[in-house]
Amino acid sequence: CRLDSATSSSSMMPSVPTPAAASVAETNPYVKTIVHNERLDNDNVLEIFSQYDLIVDGTDNFATRYLVNDAAVILGKPYVWGSIYRFEGQVSVFWAQEGPQYRDLYPEPPPPGMVPSCAEGGVLGVLCASIGSIMVTEAIKLITGIGDPLIGRLMVYDALEMRYSTLKIRRDPEGVLPTELLGDYEAFCGAISEEAADAAADSTISVATLDHWLKERADGGRDFILVDVREPNEYEINKIPGSVLIPKGDVLNGKAFDQLPQDKQVVLHCKSGVRSAEALAVLKGAGYTDAVHVGGGVVAWVNQIDPSQPTY
Question: How many domains does the chain have?
Fold first, then answer.
């Protein structure tokens, strides 16, 4: 049993079990759970996946999805894939030896900014259980060899219409199976637009620098406005002290300009640095030449400055 975002352990359970691992142990104490407290990337994905017969991918960003697909293809592993957004969900099984791969369904990632994140667009909470249950069912079918897995088929669930539909997926006759990992999946998926990358190139500060600036501001030595461009529900989970909430959408449509004086430096941050870089590009274009954003966002703040805050 593989669980994301947990601690590596050779024992039955980590000394401080994660909620997911604890839930598995409570349901069935005879299941051995090995948890990995590390970000899945080019350096570790092949080594981690090689230990397992089946991968279950519930990630919510395109860079990781393509990374998972390519690693599974290289290793010849099947994997169950699921995705949710707003009121809809999708599930399929990709196994290059038996049928299509993820790249046959989505040859290229969408342009940056075209698909909002779950935090920005929202998701119906019960979809997680609905789609998750279907993914578990597909995993059981693959492990036991019973039934007809969703290989070569995409199941689409519309919660508002309470409708399930199934679409056929075919191998791309001109497609090429990956034989090695890409050098940079974030760049391949255009994690941020070219404009955002240009704006952030010389206008990015670290959380350590921000911490120093906040102390200077408290002492009256520096004047700036710290803007959190996440969504209100994210702001309720954790926040950098002294920040004000102005969602990215209000920056993009110009509504935020009345709240942001141009005679004061603006410091932007989001969860990880992507949305704040996009907002930074808009501010730069509107004349906020002194604006900067915080690399790593609130994730880096919690990891490096204030680990007492919760993460999500």
Answer: 2
